[in-house]
Amino acid sequence: MDDKAFQAKYLPMARLLWEASEGRPGDIPSDYARHLSHTFIDGDLSLGGLLPKVEDYSEMEPEEIEEAIELLGRINPGDWPNIEDIQSISLEEVLKVYDKDASGFDYVEDNLGTAERVEKVLTEVISSVFGEKVSDIRSEKGYFPNPKNDFLQEDDGTFAGTFMYDGNKFIFEIAPAENGWICTYRMHWDSLDKLPPVHDEDNKDQNNYTRRVRQRGWK
Where does a domain end: 68, 98, 128? Predict the structure, then answer.
C-alpha cells in the first residue's frame, strides 16, 4: 500500500478499533492491529500496530486520545529507539513529546500531495548545494511540511527547517533574493555535540571535522 492510501485509511481504522475495544486496547486482536503498521517511503513508521500496547490514558479527554493515536500513525524511528522492544505506550507521553500545535497528521488529500511535493523539491535543491543526497526534510521541531507550519515557509518567503545526511542533522534556509534564491546550511548543534573532540594538532582549523556554512544562489 502506498503512503497516501495508508494515511487515508489509518485514522478511521484506528478509531474503529479503539471504539470497538471499549477502552480496553489490550483486547484489540493483533491480526487487526497489524494492518495499522506501515513503513513510509522516507523511512518513517506507523506505530498503529502497537495499539494493543497502549496504556496511561484514563485521565485524557477523548479528543486528546484521538490526537495521540493520530500522531502514532507517522513517527520518526529516531525518536523511538528499540521499537521492537516496546512493552507499552503512554498516550500522555506521546502528547508531551510531540508539540500538539505542530501536528501535521490531519492532512486532506490535497495537503498530502503538497507536503510530498514540497519535501521532494527541497530535497533536490539542498542536495544540489550540499553535494550529496540529503533526506528527512523537517521543521525545526521535527515535523513534516504541513499546513500548520506553512509547509516550512516563513512570512518573508524563506523556507527553513532541518535535513539529515549520514546520521547528522543540519539546519537549512532557502531565502528569496533579488536575482533568485540563496540556500545556506550548517550542522545542527545536536550533531555537533556528538562529534569527537578536536585533537591538538588540528587546533589551527577546528572546523575541519564538519562542513562549513555553504551557500548557493540560482534563478
Answer: 98
Cα 29 from Cα 71, distance rounded (Å): 21
End position of a domain, from candidates 98, 126, 150: 98
Count of domains in the chain?
2
SS3 of 84-139: the string is HHCCCEEHHHHHHHCCHHHCCCCCCHHHHHHHHHHHHHHHHHHHHHHCCCCEEEEC
The pair phi, psi for residue 26, each rounded to 5°, is -65, -20
Q: Domain check: are 72 and 171 in the same one? A: no
**DSSP alpha helix (H) spans, the chain:** 3-21, 30-33, 62-72, 91-97, 109-130, 189-192
| SS3 state of residue 219 | coil
116 and 55 in a single domain? The answer is no
The model's pLDDT over 41-85, given as tens digits with 9 standing for 90+, comes to 888 899 999 999 988 788 888 888 888 888 899 988 877 777 888
Q: Is 195 exposed, middle or buried (0-12, 13-18, 19+ CB in 10 A)?
A: exposed
Same domain, residue pair 94 and 141: no
Comparing C-alpha atoms, which of 123, 122, 132, 64 is closest to residue 94? 64
The predicted-structure confidence for 4-39, as pLDDT tens digits, reads as follows 888 888 888 998 898 888 888 899 988 899 899 999
pTM value is: 0.45
